[in-house]
Design brief:
Layout lengths: L6 H4 L3 E3 L5 E3 L3 E3 L1 H14 L2 E5 L10 E4 L9 E7 L2 E6 H7 L3 E8 L13 E8 L5
Parallel strand pairs: 2-6, 3-8, 4-7
Antiparallel strand pairs: 1-2, 4-5, 6-7, 8-9
Organism: Trebonia kvetii
InterPro entries: DUF779 (IPR008497)
Protein name: DUF779 domain-containing protein
C-alpha cells in the first residue's frame, strides 16, 4: 500500500537548483515497506541517498548509498526525498520513462551493483506510475 500525497499536491513542477541541478518536486514516493526499510537502514548507517543512474552497474535499479558517496551532477534530477533521504535520477532516464511518479519499493533478493541492502534478503526497486491519459 502506498501512502503519499500526489505529485500534483506537491506542485509537480521542475525547478532549477543551485549548481544547475534540476529538481522535479514531488515525483518520488515510497511504499510503507520501503519507507520502513529506509528508517531501519538509516538508524544503522546514518544519512543515505538514492541514485538511479541509467548508466552501467544496473542503471535501471535504484542504488542506496551513504549520503555524499555518489557525486551528483547537472545530469541528475532530484525527484524528492524518501524518509528524509534524497532520490536522484538521471535526467535522460527520467524523460524516457516520463512517469507521473517513481515509486520506491522493496523485493526479496540481494541488491544490485553497489547498493546497500534494504534489509536482510531485501533490495530496493522502483516502479512507475504512468501519466494519466485524457
Amino acid at each position: 500500500m502506498i501512502s503519499h500525497q500526489t505529485a500534483a499536491e506537491h506542485g509537480g513542477r521542475q525547478l532549477a537548483a543551485r549548481g544547475g541541478r534540476r529538481v522535479a518536486e514531488g515525483r518520488v514516493i515510497a511504499t510503507e515497506a520501503a519507507r520502513q526499510a529506509v528508517y531501519r537502514l538509516r538508524a544503522v548507517r546514518g544519512p543515505l541517498m538514492f541514485v538511479q543512474s541509467a548508466g552501467c552497474c544496473d542503471g535501471s535499479a535504484p542504488i542506496c548509498l551513504p549520503a555524499g558517496e555518489y557525486l551528483t551532477g547537472p545530469g541528475d534530477v532530484l525527484l524528492g526525498r524518501i524518509a528524509g533521504c534524497p532520490f536522484y535520477m538521471d535526467a535522460r532516464q527520467y524523460r524516457a520513462w516520463h512517469p507521473e511518479l517513481v515509486v520506491l519499493d522493496v523485493e526479496p533478493g540481494t541488491p544490485e551493483g553497489f547498493s546497500l541492502a534494504a534489509d536482510e534478503g531485501l533490495h530496493f526497486v522502483t516502479r512507475t506510475s504512468a501519466p494519466a491519459r485524457a
